[in-house]
Amino acid sequence: MGIQQNFSTYNEFNPSSGTATYNSLIIEGLYNTTGTYSGIIRGLYYNPITTSLTGASHRAIETTSGNVLIGTTSGSLGVGANTTINSNSILDVTSTSKGMLPPRMTTAQRDAVTWVAGDAGMMIYNTTTNKHQGWNGTTWNDFY
């Protein structure tokens, strides 16, 4: 016995003027967990079974520009198994067994990018110097 669930939608949105919000897909659910419930409640579950991705890339969520945009009502995003996201943080990464990797690039790759003052706070790992670096809006500085 298997479950076959397919969903396909095509929506066109052409606002002519003013400000508009368009939701292509809304998932709402009422979950009553007042009993002896145990388990996982998922708002969106995506688990593709792929047999071959040779020459192809796979993305679960992506915009046409290649960016992944995830918004929350609190303005904070949590990654990991933490059930409480720090409300003062835009990104709260929680793990007791894994680290976090910033973008890694050589000095030449870093310098090929046009960095501006508005990019202040940008962080990379420089593979030429083997150091974490931060952009202060004018220059790159080693963290240690």
Describe this protein's structure.
By secondary structure, the protein is mostly beta strands. It has one helix spanning 107-111; strands at residues 77-80, 91-94, 104-105, 123-126, 131-135, 140-142. The strands form two sheets. The protein has a four-stranded mixed beta sheet with strand order 3-4-5-6. A two-stranded parallel ribbon has the order 1-2. The N and C termini lie far apart (58 Å).
What's this model, at a glance?
The chain is mainly beta. It has one helix at 107-111, and strands at residues 77-80, 91-94, 104-105, 123-126, 131-135, 140-142.
Proportion in β-strands: 15-25%
Outline the biggest β-sheet.
4 strands, mixed
The structural class is mainly beta
Stretches where pLDDT is under 50 for at least 5 consecutive residues are: none
Proportion of helical residues: under 10%
What shape does the CA trace take? extended
Widest sheet: strand ordering: 3-4-5-6
| Element-level helix/strand string | EEEHEEE
Radius of gyration: 21 Å
Average pLDDT works out at 76
Oligomer: single chain
**Number of beta strands:** 6
Distance between the termini: 58 Å
Number of helices: 1
Fold blueprint:
Elements: E1 77-80, E2 91-94, E3 104-105, H1 107-111, E4 123-126, E5 131-135, E6 140-142
Parallel strand pairs: 1-2, 3-4
Antiparallel strand pairs: 4-5, 5-6
Highlighted features:
6 strands, 3% helix, 4-stranded mixed β-sheet, 15% strand, mainly beta, 144 residues, 1 helix
